[in-house]
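Predicting holo structure, pyridoxal-5'-phosphate bound.
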Amino acid sequence: MKLFDVYPLFDIVPVSASGCYITDQHGQQYLDLYGGHAVISVGHSHPHYVKKISEQLSRIGFYSNSVQNPLQEALALKLGEQSGYPDYTLFLCNSGAEANENALKLASFHTGKSRILYFDKSFHGRTSAAVAVTDNPKIVSPVNDGVNRTKLALNDAEALEEALKAGDVAAVIIEGIQGIGGCRVPEASFLQAVSALCKKYDAVLILDEIQSGYGRSGKFFAHQYAGIEPDVITVAKGMGNGFPIGAVLISPKFTAWHGMLGTTFGGNYLACAAGIAVLEIMESEKLVENAAQVGSYLMAELAKFPQIKEVRGNGLMIGLLFDEPVAPIRKKLLFDEKIFTGVTGTDVIRILPPLTLTMAEASRFIKALSKVLN
Ligand SMILES: Cc1ncc(COP(=O)(O)O)c(C=O)c1O
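Done. Tokens:
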């Protein structure tokens, strides 16, 4: 059997990794400024993370959600404290799309309504309702197309109020910082308006922090720059540092009932051990603060390049907008300078490194980029 060919692949085979570095089958080392698509938060193969998961596996790896699992409670407690949402409740699942799917379902159950408002250049995942509210018609199949939804322009509060006035809106879903949309940061005043309007028209505000959350922006959640408290927050990616885990953080105004949401694998022992280890490392190594500090340095240095039209983002979620196609720049960074970066569309390079990135590693990138661009 061959693999279903849906991914364009670089001819590189990573065989080991440590911190911000990946090593391939020939022993070549690469600086990882992509973090496997914003997933690696505490660094590759962090010893504490490896220990916690290994120890857990030797005790018990899996049972179903029909028995007590104290690790889920420990994870919820820790996440509530570290993220600033101690009074929210937690639903654990396995991926970003699944987190958004459950968030949308929860909003619809709660309001009894079905229309979802979403924004241009959004990405919320590839499953049913999540892909329907993703602004990319190419990946929305006919079976997804029936979801009742309306796309709006980002940062247009007037259009949002007009749409909410109809009274049929279950939820507004928005990314803390748009990832695949090119690291576009919603204006703080817009997020504040979205929050107020959702309250006024009784719609649920879902903040998708799957890519921008878990410290990546330099705060635990990117929306915390705007000082708002969404009704529902979705997380995944950095939460498990590569171990598949996603979650929905749910405001106390929602009431759960048995069977309302569910999953086989969500909240399993290994995922919880990974999630707890990540939070412990984030806390002890002050990684949110590091993301803010190294990110500010990077953004200031990148803004000096005349070839870069715009530097977007916050913390260690940075988009570099060019006037020219970026694929050749990314290739040179990868094959000549041995640095992984990401791209989105044809004109944005994305920097999504582990949150452990040091100033020295950041300045190595600045030097390499200067070589590639000049
Ligand atoms: C903002 C955002 N939401 C949702 C998702 C979907 O996450 P997953 O691929 O884990 O389903 C992604 C993935 O890139 C994302 O960036």
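The chain has a mean pLDDT of 98.
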